[in-house]
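Entry 14. Ran structure prediction on the chain below.
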Amino acid sequence: MSRFTYVAKGPHGSIQGTQDAASAAALAGELQAKGLVPLKITPDGPVTPSGAGGAPSGAIATPEFMKPKVLPMDVMMFSKQLYTLFKAGVPILRALAGLQETTQNLTLKEVLLDLRRNLEGGVELSACMAQHPKVFDGFFVAMVKVGETSGRLEEIFLRLSEHIGFELFMRQQVKSATRYPSFVVMAMVGALGVINIMVIPAFANVFKSLGSDLPLPTKILVATSNFTIQHGWTILGAAVASFFVWRHWKGTPDGKLSWDRIVLRMPVVGDIVTKAALARFTRAFALSLRSGVPLERALIGVSQTADNAYLTQQIDQMRDHIMRGETLARAAASTGIFTPMVLQMIAIGEETGMVDELLEEVGELYTEEVQYSLKTLSQQIEPILIVFMGALVLILALGVFLPMWNLGSAAMKH
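Output, structure tokens:
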């Protein structure tokens, strides 16, 4: 018998303690029998790694802020390589050891070492990855959990590599579509700032010296200019403080739920985010059902794959409706997040016993719609940008050029 220190996740949060067991795997089994999810199991006392790629004895640890970041491209390559190794029949510990030796990213190397240690201690792969949220996000961990439940880890890692590749492609498309509008908006905001701080006060002084009354649009611009000059630093400080308050609020469970719901209702962006999230969910759900996972359990495993707190909440409500005896189609309709066509396909799938195949088709349909929406994103943004620029130019024209037209008549009087 040996003594082990463990960290486990229970219904009321994390639990830490020590316990005697024959091995780390045996302790993991005992914890799972108690309804706990083992996160980390280590022998009680200092452990010196040897030949595992750890830092040599006496080496100075690299500060956290100096370590290289693990980029999405690194995670995509890791998933693709792990899929290839699994397909070739390489055991997981041997696969992770090989990837640890070949990776050039020092941070990822340390993460792979930690994964190996925890796996040797009897912890599930998804639980090991959950300890590194900066590298493996909630969607990644949830998909690995589905793979463990269904016995299709090989296919899951292939899907994850395709998903990350699609996410990178989507980000590139968004950047490409918004680059020109961003430059235009920045230029207009800069011009508005210069006019507001430098041009408008000069015009106001000229009109005051001539004794001419300013038109209403110019009076509004002058008042705005005076307020900006007098309270500029206060406005800037309030904007920075508001950003950090918003960021903190978005990090809370209630804030994340509210913000994710707001994002889904945003014009242009909301439709794309919704379809991308539902594409991930339907694909993962289809994979779970095809692997023989029961319906209720499959929904528990894939609810996090939507990567949106509001959609996850709605999917959890689907599970509640199904547990009350309702059909999948009726439960999906109660959420209000699926289109009528998708609901019809789910209903047909239930009648024919082909829910997994039709859900896979739904995922493909959503993916194609997302790709099309991204390709036409710039065309959707242009009308909004034109209206914004037109309104801005109108305000400047009325505020600046209208008094200039009256400047000649005012000078003639003097």
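Strands lie at 2-10, 13-21, 37-43. Will compare against last week's run tomorrow.
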